[in-house]
Design a protein that fits this description.
It is a single chain. Strands 2-1-3-4-5 form a 5-stranded mixed sheet, with helices on both faces. It has one domain. The protein has 133 residues and is of the alpha+beta class.
C-alpha cells in the first residue's frame, strides 16, 4: 500500500475548503494527483460506485468517521492505478496550518461525478484550473 500522507498535506487547505463548502451534504473528498484537483462528491453516490468488494467496508468507515466529526478523503493516483481512502476523525479544530492526521488508510476503487466546486490546491478562485496555470 502506498503512503499518500505528504500529498494530502499539500492538498490539506483545499480539502478543508471543499469540506467547508459542502459539509452539510456529508461529502467525501477526492484528491486527484494527475490533474491536481480536489473534488467534493456526494458520499452515497461515490461509495455506491465502488466495487462490491470494497463498498460496504467504505460505507462503514465513512459512517464511523463522520460520526466522530471527521471527513473521508480518497486519493486517486491514476499513474499507479490506485484509489486509496483516508479517514480524518474530528476535524473541528483543523486549519490549513495543522498537518492532517489520518486514523487509517485503505485501498479502494471506483468514483462518481463531483459536486460543484472542483478545486485545485492553492487556488482561491476558478474551480477548473490546474496547478501552475
Amino acid at each position: 500500500m502506498r503512503d499518500y500522507t505528504k500529498q494530502i498535506e499539500e492538498f490539506w487547505p483545499t480539502i478543508l475548503e471543499a469540506w467547508d463548502a459542502h459539509a452539510d451534504k456529508r461529502p467525501v473528498i477526492e484528491c486527484n494527483l494527475a490533474d491536481r484537483k480536489v473534488r467534493a462528491y456526494a458520499s452515497a453516490g461515490y461509495i455506491d460506485s465502488l466495487s462490491a468488494r470494497t463498498r460496504e467496508a467504505a460505507r462503514r468507515e465513512f459512517d464511523r468517521i463522520t460520526a466522530e466529526g471527521g471527513i473521508m478523503v480518497f486519493v486517486l493516483d491514476p499513474e499507479h492505478r490506485v484509489l486509496q481512502s483516508y479517514g480524518f476523525p474530528d476535524i473541528s479544530g483543523a486549519s490549513g496550518s495543522r498537518k492532517p492526521s489520518p486514523s487509517r488508510q485503505r485501498p479502494d476503487d471506483g468514483g462518481a461525478p463531483p459536486m460543484p466546486g472542483t478545486r485545485t490546491p492553492g487556488r482561491k478562485k476558478s474551480a477548473s484550473r490546474k496547478a501552475g496555470e
